[in-house]
UniProtKB/TrEMBL annotation:
One term of GO molecular function: methyltransferase activity
Pfam family, any one: Methyltransf_31
Keyword check for ATP-binding: no
Protein name: Class I SAM-dependent methyltransferase
Transmembrane segments: 229-251
Keyword match Transmembrane: yes
InterPro entries listed in its UniProt record: Methyltranfer_dom, SAM-dependent_MTases_sf
Enzyme class, spelled out: transferase
Record keywords, A-Z: Membrane, Methyltransferase, Transferase, Transmembrane, Transmembrane helix
Length: 269
C-alpha cells in the first residue's frame, strides 16, 4: 500500500488551525513509539544545554513534530528543518510563524546534496534514511555539517522485521521505503565510512513495541487504505486500543532489547 497519500490526508485534516496541529503533534508523541525513544535520547542530550545558543538540523522534518518539540525546550536554540516536500515546508513555516516560534526555519533541501560545513551542534534523522538510496552520501553531508563534538541521532527500521518484512519473499508494508531495514553492524560501518568515529546503536521496537505498532499504526492504515470512510470509525477504534498502546510503548521505551524492528543510533563527530 502507499503510505504517503494517507499521511498527506492526515496532514490536511490537522493543518486547518494551529490548535488542531498542536493536538496532532501531541497525539503523535503519545502514539508513535519511535517518538518515545527519540525524546528519551534528546532529553539526555539537552540536559544542561537549554541556556546555550545551539544550532540544530532536523534532517527530513516531515510534519515538523520533532522540530516543534525541540523548539519548546529552549528559545535559545536555532533550528533548521529541511525536507524535500515543498507543501510540507510551506505549511510548517506558516504554522511556526502563527505560534510565534521565531527560532525555527523550514527549507526545501535534498539531503543527498545539502551540506552546511561546521554549523550544527545536533542533527536529527527520524525515519528518513530508509527512504534514501544514497545513505552514505547523506551521512557524509551531515558529518561535514556538524561542529566538532556534534551528535547525529537516527531512528530507522532494522533488518529484524523493520517495515514489517520478516521473510525474503515479503515486500515492505510501506512501499515508499528503498530498504526494508538496516543491519545494526551495517549502519555503524556506513557511519564510520562517512567519518564518524564514536557510534552507539541499540534496538527499539522489541516485542511490546511490535504489538503496539500493529494496533496503533498497521491495522488502521490498512483499513484507511481500503476506504477513507474508516476515518469516521478511527476515534472509536483508538478509544479501545489507545490505553494498551500507551502501556506497551512505556514498556518498550524502558526495556533493553536483544533484537527489535527498529534502531536508535547516535554518532558523534
Amino acid at each position: 500500500m502507499y503510505y504517503d497519500p494517507i499521511k498527506k490526508t492526515l496532514g490536511q485534516v490537522f493543518n486547518r488551525t494551529p490548535w488542531l496541529r498542536r493536538l496532532f503533534y501531541h497525539l503523535l508523541d503519545l502514539l508513535l513509539l519511535r517518538t518515545w525513544h527519540v525524546h528519551r535520547e534528546l532529553r539526555r542530550w539537552a540536559k544542561g544545554r537549554t541556556q546555550e545558543p545551539l544550532h540544530i538540523l532536523d534532517a527530513g522534518s516531515g510534519y515538523g513534530q520533532y522540530t516543534y518539540w525541540l523548539s519548546g525546550l529552549s528559545a535559545k536554540w536555532n533550528i533548521l528543518a529541511v525536507d524535500v516536500k515543498d507543501d510540507q515546508v510551506a505549511d510548517s513555516n506558516q504554522f511556526f510563524r502563527q505560534i510565534g516560534r521565531k527560532n525555527v526555519q523550514f527549507a526545501v533541501q535534498d539531503l543527498v546534496l545539502y551540506q552546511e560545513p561546521n554549523s550544527f551542534d545536533l542533527a536529527l534523522s527520524v525515519d528518513v534514511m530508509e527512504h534514501i538510496l544514497e545513505d552514505v552520501e547523506v551521512f557524509r553531508n551531515i558529518h561535514a555539517s556538524l561542529k566538532d563534538g556534534g551528535m547525529l541521532l537516527i531512528s530507522t527500521p532494522s533488518d529484524q522485521g523493520g517495515s514489517d518484512v520478516h521473510d525474503d519473499g515479503e515486500t515492505s508494508f510501506i512501499e515508499e521505503h528503498v530498504r526494508d531495514g538496516y543491519n545494526i553492524r551495517e549502519i555503524q560501518q556506513k557511519l564510520r565510512t562517512a567519518g564518524f568515529e564514536r557510534i552507539e546503536a541499540r534496538y527499539s521496537y522489541g516485542e511490546p513495541g511490535q504489538i503496539s505498532w500493529r494496533l496503533s499504526m498497521k491495522y488502521p492504515i490498512l483499513m484507511l487504505g481500503k476506504s477513507r470512510a474508516f476515518f469516521i470509525l478511527l476515534p472509536f477504534y483508538y478509544a479501545v486500543v489507545f490505553p494498551f498502546c500507551l502501556l506497551l510503548n512505556w514498556l518498550d521505551a524502558r526495556s533493553t532489547h536483544d533484537s527489535g524492528t527498529g534502531l536508535i543510533v547516535k554518532a558523534w563527530k
